[in-house]
Amino acid sequence: MKVGLFFGSFNPIHIGHLIIADTVQDQTELEEVWFVVSPQNPHKSNSTLLHEFDRLKMVELATADHFKFRVTDVEFNMPRPSYTIDTLTYLTEKHPGKEFYLILGGDNLTHFHKWKNSQEILNQYGIYVYPRPGKSKKIDHEHIHYVEAPLLDISATFIRKTIRRGGSVRYLLHPHVLDYIRDKKFFL
User: Fold this and answer.
1) pLDDT value at position 5?
2) Which helix (H) or strand (E) holds 6?
3) Does residue 41 register a pLDDT over 80?
4) What pLDDT sits at residue 183?
């Protein structure tokens, strides 16, 4: 089984994440997409992160109605910060019948060479790259595949700021995620 891994802080998960995951799954041979909720991204500050279990819950709420989406907290019990190569190695050992691929925005590909063991990731796993606003570096490699997908410029930062100022994010979040954020009074 071919599984796409969509890593992220998901602080919060938004409609852009869901559209990209659905598009990549639909346009490739991936049979499932697993959302990997990262408790600590080595390239991001934790100052605005909600608790990892709240972010996990929001991803579960957002993906529950899609039969090809799964959610994993695999990185919650791994050393922090989380490194993609370590997660890939663990998942490959734990699920020998699955072939894992990364789902990555073109903007992240620009800095991919700075990732821990990036060459090993390139050589052992496939990467599906979706377009992101701005300039993206293209890398020619047999394991990198570019996917035509909507060019979305929705950011969790914008969503958090909009909530903080009392604005509407109604069409940027799955309705269950929006209800969860309102109930918990997050990002105020």
Assistant:
1) 98
2) strand 2-8
3) no
4) 98
Q: Which residues are within 8 A (CB) of 181 and not within 5 positions of it... i.e. 6 or more apart?
A: 12, 58, 163, 173, 187
Q: What 3-state class would DSSP assign to 168? A: coil
Burial (CB count <10 Å: 0-12, 13-18, 19+), residue 131:
middle
Neighbours of 1 (CB within 10 A): 10
Confidence bin at 51 (pLDDT 50/70/90)? very high
Going from the C-alpha of 87 to that of each of 16, 80, 101, the distances in angstroms are 24, 11, 12
Q: CA–CA distance from 109 to each of 61, 123, 136, 145 (Å)? A: 29, 15, 7, 12
Q: Which tokens in the block code for residue 18?
A: 């869901």
- What distances in angstroms separate CA 160 from CA 53, 155, 163, 164, 182, one per listed residue? 18, 9, 5, 6, 12
Nearest Cα to Cα of residue 86 among 5, 14, 167:
5
In 118-185, beta strands by DSSP E: 126-130, 144-146
Residue with tokens 């991936």: 30
Calculated CA dihedral for residues 175, 57, 26, 89, nearest 10 degrees? 160
